Amino acid sequence: MIRFENISMSFSRARAGRLDVLRGIDFQIQEGELVCLLGPSGCGKSTLLNLAAGFLVPDSGRVVFGGAPVSTPGPERGVIFQEPTLFPWLTVFGNVAFGLRAAGVNPGQVQAKVKETLRLAGIEGFDDQYPHALSGGMRQRVALARVLVLDPKALLMDEPFSSLDANSRERLQDELLRIWQAHRRTILFVTHSVQEAAYLADRIVLMGPPPAAVQSEIVVDLQGPRDRNSPKLRQLEDSLRSQLGALPCCHVPREADRSERCRSK
To answer: Is 187 in contact with 35 (CB distance < 8 Å)?
Structure first.
């Protein structure tokens, strides 16, 4: 479904030449798979997702989606950002309906499709609310619904739950798994949280510090529904922490994931 073929990417820096961010990234995501990109902050995870979205073009290599090279954004690849970028002047219904209306979909079909998607995203009954009246978790549900209503083939999710409190984050992780298991859309999910990657993923692609390359790919052999307290899940988390801790500039402490960050040794 999504292939990264020998991707390299760099960015210009004022008075400091170019910064190599990605080097020789080569892996693929199968249709219906939920893959987490895991790595320290600043390792190029979001850059890789933006390449898949068509927001960026690599210096070398290419991204292929469904057999066709990616060079521009497209509706078949729905993107969900860390912050829910909703239109504050539109209600929940209006935000979710926006893309359908812009595409000229029949009003009756818009009504039915939006109602169905609000139910799927767990925000049924909030149609007339405005974003300012919603919690962070609810706003992120609306952002998810706004993408799902367009029926994309793949979801590209850039740390979508990282700004939420722990309880909201876990609830939305559960909701995402429920939606994914019901519809089996392909998902590329960026995170720096070991717990999140272990809990969500079919497969984890571990990236190192810049210029980032794929350090390892870990198949998560855990059947759903997953138990956050299961010994196997804890064992996987410990293994991921060990692998991250072995990277040249990344130290991950044993305590809660919110302490995870790249530290210079």
So the answer is: yes
Over residues 226-246, mean pLDDT? 92
Element (H or E) spanning 233, and its range? helix 231-245
Are the beta carbons of 24 and 4 closer than 8 angstroms?
Answer: no
CB 62 within 8 A of CB 9: no
Q: What is the pLDDT of residues 135-189, one digit of tens each?
A: 999 999 999 999 999 999 999 999 999 889 999 999 999 999 999 988 889 999 9
d(CA 209, CA 59): 18
Q: What is residue 41's predicted lDDT score, i.e. its pLDDT?
A: 82
In the block, residue with structure tokens 């590329």: 188
Angle between helices 166-183 and 136-148 (to 10 degrees): 20
Asked if residue 39 lies in contact with residue 207, where contact means CB atoms within 8 angstroms, the answer is: yes
Q: Which residues have CB under 8 Å from 106's CB, separation 6+?
A: none
